[in-house]
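USER: Note each token:
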Amino acid sequence: MTFMKRTHYCGQLRTEDIGKTVTLCGWAHSARNHGGVLFIDLRDRTGLTQTVIEPENKELFATGEKIKGEYVIELRGTVRARPAGYANGAMPTGGIEVAASGITVLNESKTPPFELGEHVNVTEEIRLKYRYVDLRRQKMAANLMRRHTVAQLMRAYLNKREFMEVETPILTRSTPEGARDYLVPSRVSAGNFYALPQSPQMFKQILMVSGIDRYYQLARAFRDEDLRADRQPEFTQLDLEMSFAKEDDVFPLMEGLMKEIFDAMGQELPVPFPRMTYQTVMEKYGSDKPDLRYGLELADCTDVFKSTGFKVFSSVVETGGAIRALKAEGGAKLTRGDMDKLTETAKKAGAKGLVWMRVKDGAVESPAAKFFTPEELAALKTKLSAKDGDAIFMASDEPMKASLIMGEIRKDLITRLELKPARPWAAFWVTNFPLLEWRPEEKRYDATHNPFTAPLEEEIPLLDTNPGNMGSHQYDMVLNGVELASGSVRNHRSGIQRKIMGLMGYNEEAIQERFGMLVNALDYGAPPHAGIAIGFDRLVALLSGETSIREVIAFPKTTTAACPLSGAPDRVDTRQLEDLHLRIVETEKVLGEKN
């Protein structure tokens, strides 16, 4: 078999190439005979080119007639303009076609398990089983190319700013970071295990102690947790760390990176990003990752009902609770069935119920309206600037819980009212998360985000008196309601780090066992440092308009953490287990699942 030199990719030819002799290689996307003229759309990762075989060349025509979908072919020919009236403005190559002068079938193909159109009607399980076919679809090829482009932009941006790309270990030790570890048994150290990293956190901090100063890595991370559309057991993050840095160094760096990426994608992302403290964002939106493209801000209406006779509200107010309200413009069109479903949303979030009202003809309609005085209803309307056609929703509870309940109602309303975003992109920073939260069942504190986060400097004395009320230098970047990045200023003084870990229930022996390599390094001249990690898969999914990160990963797992293509996870033979000093114990649950 003789190959000609490929001169162009299938998506590259334009009207300025008319008259050129070209050689294309790719897959037959479709073949059709129109009145004795054979058209073959040739496809590769860059797109499609229409090719034409005229009937005068009988030998070539006979070869072309045998070509079926997904045959791999090499085609030589001359670029020419499409006939008048037949140009396809929806295709980049729609102004031209290639008149074939030679075709070589490089390989045949079975009939694919599904159509390769953009609206393929096939289960995800089948798509992943035949991923080598699925990735030929133009949308999937474009997603992977976008992923590649974003990765190169990230590297170039950070390289220009004196960052060093350093690889950290994949085989490391188990550390408690919030999710289950994937464990790897050691053959040479019987009974011991490696763990796949949930993040490079401790290693990148040690790099700062080592004087590397500015580190980054497109890091693979692994977490054995229940999967959703935005989670995979193995994923990629842009991980970076900076010495002698605080929030005001990290934020503009990341905003510049995001703007450069969005500019390259032809998208406008306003910078700098707004900043809101955790306390503020929870009070205004009831979530630490709200989608700011929509309005729907919560309001504190506790003062409106401070003397109410409605016992549900009065009992909450008397015990220091809060009444959170939300006005939905146009919400009066919601049916009673919608209101019942919203009430169920509130109950799933921990509420005992949900008070809802419609504003019509200047009056408030609600099953609960009879429990409130006209003055209270008028004050409520004034507080929320509610007008005819609006709906009002209220929940009462401990202040943070009331906010969380209404945050769930807010998300439900965005979907139920089919609200349109006010702008394409809305990014902002959430700052000053609480440092610790109390675990009453375990009688200890736990880190709200990251156990290596530094407390606010002025609140360090609270470590000894009231650690549950401490703020921190933890920050998140949120984009369109997605927690896209998370980071913090770190503890660079080992005494503070050890004290925080002590509050989390670790004695000195446990600290050495779990975190020794980091806390010991902090004793040897650790500089102040800060860092962040961007969910790379999530970013590419957002840029691609995808709701699932599986659509931008070449070989993802299913929601059961399985790979239909390779068959992983799978059993291994007894010899391999013996080498690893392991044996399988069949539990009743496993036996039941097998049967």
Q: What stands out?
A: Residues 138-160 form the longest helix (23 residues).
